[in-house]
Specification:
about 425 residues; alpha/beta; Rossmann fold; 14 strands; about 15% strand
Length: about 425
């Protein structure tokens, strides 16, 4: 209950009272709808038939149930969706848990060959799925995020007792700032400590060297695989040159100034002071921030009061690339702390695929790539931006070749292959 109250306070802080009330009402209504759907006899017969087709007739080597409150149809298509989609293309039958906040899936829906969206809050749906999976002799896995605060440890242990192994995606420092609560939620903390002990049943996927070191120190290298974030290369190369931008962005483009851009979460780990300094010292450029406010740090920073800084809010994943393609330089201006030292910024690989010069602060996972200009302080950051703005595809062709090479090497397909390769080695 304490975790839920802390989460509620965080939502109010993030969205305000009215929007939070609306979300809570939507949640209550969705629960009513889910209960009604679970009692629909005719629908349940259809689900039963579909499950038999997926499980008994599908061409796959293993089953993975992705348990998460992340959702599928969210504005930013991120690691959970990309990994699941690419696992399904490599002979894994993936059941991906949806949420009532983002997805209109009453029970189940086929998203792709070997990728099924399932509403596990539908009790009937859940019972039918796991009842049928009991008889499957192929390897079975429950895949979870380290930041998942919904699943209890007791539930995870129950899956293990049913013959499932666990794929634990250790994707971030375990920190209350990331969970949006005052303290680390008990469900996150308990699963984390259990993972450190159960080396036989829990397989760990890490996304950053710092997280890998943490695991090795506590439980050794057994059943551990490294798979950082990646990019859907083809998606980011397919730019719509006829895309119609919204009025706000058209206004920015009409100024004909170079654009230094960022997209992603806007939160306390964002270096507002450094970006402010850039904006003030380089009034001849525009700074564009696209993304969702993770907390109230943007308002507190006062950065929106600067004339050449524009915060545009979120843009859907499918059209975001068209906006970012207008950036002259792409950046990740994060503070360096325990959270960002363990972060594999997904957006750097997308920036690479777009073929845009990249400037970031000195995050460990960014230092690995030749295509990224690394800044250790505000002065270096501004200097690197100046250098990046002067890059020319004809004069600096080698740099842009490196961008493309590193983007291709870090495709989501390759990340999923690393996970499948590991699973094959232990099956």
């Amino acid at each position: 209950m304490k975790d839920k109250l802390s989460k509620l306070k965080s939502l109010i802080k993030k969205y305000g009272i009215l929007k939070t009330i609306k979300k809570l009402l939507n949640y209550i209504w969705s629960k009513i709808v889910i209960t009604f759907n679970s009692l629909n006899v005719l629908r349940n017969k259809k689900i039963n038939r579909l499950l038999n087709e997926f499980i008994n007739k599908g061409d796959y080597d293993r089953i993975i149930v992705w348990c998460s409150n992340f959702g599928w149809d969210v504005p930013l298509f991120q690691r959970p969706q990309h990994i699941s989609l690419n696992l399904s293309k490599q002979k894994c039958l993936v059941f991906y848990e949806v949420t009532h906040f983002t997805d209109k899936v009453k029970d189940l829906k086929k998203a792709n060959e070997n990728l099924i969206l399932v509403n596990l809050e539908n009790i009937k749906m859940r019972k039918m799925l796991f009842s049928k999976l009991k008889s499957v002799t192929k390897p079975k896995y429950i895949q979870i995020y380290s930041t998942d605060w919904k699943m209890k440890l007791s539930e995870l242990k129950e899956y293990i007792s049913m013959g499932f192994k666990v794929i634990y995606e250790y994707i971030d420092e375990i920190n209350p700032i990331l969970t949006g609560t005052k303290e680390i939620p008990i469900n996150i903390e308990e699963k984390y400590h259990y993972m450190l002990k159960d080396v036989e049943n829990v397989y760990v996927v890490v996304t950053a060297d710092k997280l890998k070191e943490d695991i090795i120190k506590s439980r050794g290298e057994k059943n551990l695989v490294f798979a950082s974030n990646g990019v859907d290369y083809e998606h980011y190369k397919n730019i719509n040159n006829n895309f119609k931008f919204d009025k706000d962005f058209k206004n920015i483009l009409s100024q004909n100034k170079p654009i230094v851009g960022y997209y992603g979460a806007i939160a306390v780990w964002f270096d507002y002071d450094m970006v402010k300094k850039l904006a003030i010292e380089r009034p001849d450029i525009n700074i564009v921030l696209i993304g969702s406010k993770y907390d109230d740090s943007l308002e507190k920073s006062g950065i929106e009061e600067i004339d050449n800084v524009y915060f545009l809010g979120t843009r859907n994943y499918n059209v975001l690339k068209n906006y970012a393609n207008c950036f002259d330089v792409c950046t990740v201006p994060f503070l360096i702390n325990d959270i960002t030292k363990a972060t594999s910024p997904l957006k750097i690989f997308e920036y690479m695929a777009l073929g845009k010069p990249i400037v970031t602060t000195a995050m460990d996972e960014c230092k690995k790539y030749k295509s990224i200009y690394i800044a250790n302080n505000s002065e270096e950051f501004i200097n690197m931006i100046d250098i990046a703005l002067k890059l020319d595809k004809k004069k600096n062709n080698e740099y842009f070749k490196i961008l493309e090479k590193e983007a291709i090497e870090n495709s989501w397909q390759n990340k999923a292959k690393e996970i499948v390769k590991f699973l094959q080695s232990v099956e």
